[in-house]
Amino acid sequence: MFGVRCFCLLLLSFNLINGLHPPSYIKPCSLSDPNLNDCALKSGIEALPHLLEGDKKYGIQTLNPYYVDLIEVNQGDLKVNLKKPVTTGLEKVTLKAVKIDTETKKMSINTLFHNIVVTGNYEISGKILILPIEGQGKLNITVVNGLFTYEFTIAKEIKNGVEYAKVTNDILLMDIERVFFNFENLFNGDKILGDQINKFLNENWQDVLNEAGGAAIEVLKGACKNSLNGLFLKVPYNELFLQ
Ligand SMILES: *[C@@H]1O[C@H](CO)[C@@H](O)[C@H](O)[C@H]1NC(C)=O
């Protein structure tokens, strides 16, 4: 009896100490490969559909669709609350480039999302681009051809004597072709005023994004970081980044 339990504990700790091998759909690249960026891009293109689906074993949440509890904007005179927004369309993505600088340990991932749709319930009050806005109801934000660049430094963390990679100092840059907004039921359902404001927001989508887009960037950045760290903290550094 004691012997069996002991053996199980041993197995358990053996697993913890050694971490997991990379998932079969990730082909590790060698950091000394002169074409490292090409290797990383190729490996990334193969892995991306699997990563989007999520992989519990590796701590990767599904991004298709992507759920968060709350997005809050508190910017000057503007207050926006999105409760349990659902993001769909993240699977329509093209991985454009992956760059790894082996000296500085900086990595950047460049992706084009063709059509991202965020829906949910909103509450809004205050002023947006000097116009008063007020209401609550259903919301649809559609982002067309969003080019996102996620940049971070690969740090190392030691767990049980084994080195793991970890995302630090991350930033997310975006360059978007077009955004469409549809706030239903603005001003207690005043259709004329509501239509006018939606029209105004859509005509001035770039300014709206500049004023209120920061919160969305934070959410997307969090999604990138969680997905990568989920994987990084389960597979030892040397198994993901071959020397
Ligand atoms: C959101 O809006 C886009 C276009 O503005 C539309 O194509 C799409 O069907 C809408 N989605 C939902 C769930 O309302």
UniProtKB/TrEMBL annotation:
Q: What UniProt keywords apply to this chain's record, in alphabetical order?
A: Biological rhythms, Signal
Matching Pfam families: JHBP
InterPro entries in the record:
Haemolymph_juvenile_hormone-bd, To_sf
**Entry annotated with the keyword Signal:** yes
Cellular component per GO, a single term: extracellular space
**What protein family does this chain belong to?**
Belongs to the TO family.
Q: Per its record, how is this protein called by name? A: Protein takeout-like
